Structure formats: structure tokens, C-alpha cells
Amino acid sequence: MAQNGYHSNKLAATTPDTQDIINTLPIDSIWVDVKMILEEGSIRPIDPSTTPPEDLQELFGPHEWDQPHLVEGDTDLDGREIAELVFTDLLTTSVSRQAVSFSLHPKSGDTSTDSRIAARLLTNAISPLTNTSSNSHDDSAIDIDTSSSTDINSPPPGPKELSTEGKALWSIISPSVSSAYKKPPKVPTEEHPDYLWEAVVNTNIIPANGMADLHHDAGCVFNTLIEGQKLWIVYPPSSHNHTVLRSIYTQNYDPKHTVIFREFKKFENGIVFLQHKGETIWLPPYCPHAVFTIHDSVLTGGQWHGKRKFPQRLRYAILDLELNRDSTYLNYWADELDKLIHSLEQVLATPNPALHKEFLVAWDTILANGDFDALLLGEQVKKKTKGKGGGKNDRKEQFKKAWIAGTKDWFQCPVCDVRWEKGSKRKWFQSHFEEKHWLKEKGSKSRRDEA
């Protein structure tokens, strides 16, 4: 592997052809519309194993972490072992039930039924999964033959509502899978100076014709395809694409309806590539993307968060809030605000003036456009944790205290180009911050915007 993390540090000898990708796709079900995206959308094929051309580096960012690509990362796992490890955790009394979780989509509305369907999907991963064709056009549009997953010792097939058609098993969290999965060498450890935090390893089991509809991720994603084949459509994290994505999220975004087939013409400068069994994809934060399952798949990976990307994390945290506006998002968002405050403290403690400037610019931006107030209002109820309180004003004070504590030794504002002068009070930047980079008494803009 090349030093920069790509399988090859050379430009592709030949540019991949859209028609070549189209020729690999099935001819029915969702694939008619996928082909329409490739032919009519603002999108071009790439080879993710090679260094991207300069124009794509400008669109996604100059650093390797900014660009979608294949990374080195071997795995000995297969679909059968993944399922066996999950079952092992579920059957081991020493493993907390809270340590093993999953999400079935779409749900049937009955917990018992959903659990049995999830068990069938796990069983099918051992079978292995069996492809069938369908002309259905659901968001997850998944069709599998479950008849081969039973034997003479199994109970008779359940009622019709236990069908796995159109179902997928998402975000399976299993301690045994986490231990067995080998993360790519490029994923930094806790000792890396840029490390903030890392999400727990999780697995998706998605039969053929399934998809993950248009969305974004807040961290650097690394996903290893244990089984199957997938097609990725990825758009750069531009202001235009974020505006379109936020509009989609705020207009009654419903993952039960395929968004990308309706909205793809609004996005710009997309790329498309195939992921094969055994390959690991690195995807940078805040890139709108959709993923289509060509062959039954088992995908395992995680998310990594670093200080260098935190200004972007702060700037676009409003997208995370909009994406997660569902019945559970209040609890989710309380945890996210905790992470934002903790990450803020760590970034301010980093001796990196360039990062401080980028971060303060992002901070000023969310104040100026009202996003900071929106982030605080995302937590509508008092938070019942850790004695911190959780009202809007409590959270605002936590952010302010983090800023004041983290900048107590600053003698220059990296944005305003003013310095502490001899004879001024020691905590000069704290006064400057409150005057130029904090909220006014009313409204959501900082005093700096009045100048």
C-alpha cells in the first residue's frame, strides 16, 4: 500500500466508465432508477483505489482524510462468523443485554415480531443469504428467500407478517464482533495527537436490492465489506450540497421513501464507485451519500472523530440535529451536546493556532446564522444526567465556560488580528471573546457582526 493510505498513489491509468458500472448492475427492481441517476445526475465514476485527480481534491479537500477512497485493511471474518458472534453475545449471560443492540428497518410495529424477523436475518447471514429478484421499490427494497434457512428441527414458518422482504438489520452492536474486527491500520489510536473519540464498531446485514438512502455521517467512516457487493454515490461536502441536504431533512424527511431518486438532480459534483468483498471504504464527514446493495451484504465498521475535523463538525452540527429529528432524538441530542462541549475543550487545549482560527471562524458562523441557538433548542426538555442540568441557558453556560477556560492563556485573537497589550488585564481574551465572539443579550448574532 502507498504511504498515503491509498492502494496506489498513482492516478488511474484509465478513467472508469459509467457504462461499465451500469453493465454490472441488475436489470430490475431499484436498479432502473439507479441507472437513471448515473446517466442524468451530476456524477462521474472513479477508481477509489487510486489518488483522486486535482479537481476532486479541491472539491472534497486536500488531505487524505477528506477524500473517499479504499484503504488497506484485511479481515478474516465472514458473514457466518459475524452472525455466530452476535448470537454468542445474546446467549452469554455474562454479557449485558444493553451491550448487544440492533435496529430493524422498516419496523412492523410489534417488538416480538421484529425480534423474530431480526433473528431470521441473522440466520440468513449464516445460510448464507439467498438472492431473489423483485420489482418492488421500497426505500430498503430487500428481497430474500428464507425457505432455505430452516431445517427439520426448526419450527414451521411463522405468519406472513414475519416475512423478511423489505427488511434490513442495521447498526448491530456486539462486543464479540468489535473484538474480532480488525480496524484498518490508518484509523488512529487513542495515542494519536488528533484523536477525539471513536464510535463503537457496528454491522449492517442488508440483502440484495437494499439501500441506505441519502444521508451524511458526522465522523470519518471506515466500512469493511465482509460479504457482498455495493455501489456508493457520494457528493462533496459543499455549501450547495449541504443546503440541499438540510432542505431535504427539514421537509418531513421520511426514510421509508427513497429520497435520492427524487432529489439527485439538485446535487452537484458527485462520484460513484463499486465496493467489493474484502474492501474497506474510508468516507469523510458530511458527504451526502447513498449506498446500494448489489449482492447480499454484511458490512462492518465504525466512525473516527479527530480534532482537525472538529471545526467542520461544529459548523455542520445542525445537519446532525435535522437528520435525527425522530421520537428518540432528544436523548440522542443531549449526548451529542456533551460530546461537542468535551471536544471543544480538547481542541482549545491543542497548541495549533491555525486550527484555533479555523475553529473560531466556524464558531462565528454558527452564531451569525442562528445555528447555535437551534442546537441548544434541540434539547427541549431538562436533561436528567450527571447533575449538569439541561435547559438551554444551562447548556449555553457550559459552552461559554469551556471557551473561557480553554483560552485563558491566549494573547492574540486568531480572527480579529488584535493582541493583548502590556498593562492590560491578564484575562484579556476572555473580555474580547464576550464582546466579539459571543451572543448578544437577545437574538443569535454575536456583537462582532454589528461591526
From TrEMBL:
<dbReference type="InterPro" id="IPR050910">
    <property type="entry name" value="JMJD6_ArgDemeth/LysHydrox"/>
</dbReference>
<feature type="compositionally biased region" description="Low complexity">
    <location>
        <begin position="143"/>
        <end position="153"/>
    </location>
</feature>
<feature type="region of interest" description="Disordered">
    <location>
        <begin position="128"/>
        <end position="164"/>
    </location>
</feature>
<protein>
    <recommendedName>
        <fullName>JmjC domain-containing protein</fullName>
    </recommendedName>
</protein>
<dbReference type="Pfam" id="PF02373">
    <property type="entry name" value="JmjC"/>
</dbReference>
<dbReference type="InterPro" id="IPR003347">
    <property type="entry name" value="JmjC_dom"/>
</dbReference>
<feature type="domain" description="JmjC">
    <location>
        <begin position="173"/>
        <end position="321"/>
    </location>
</feature>
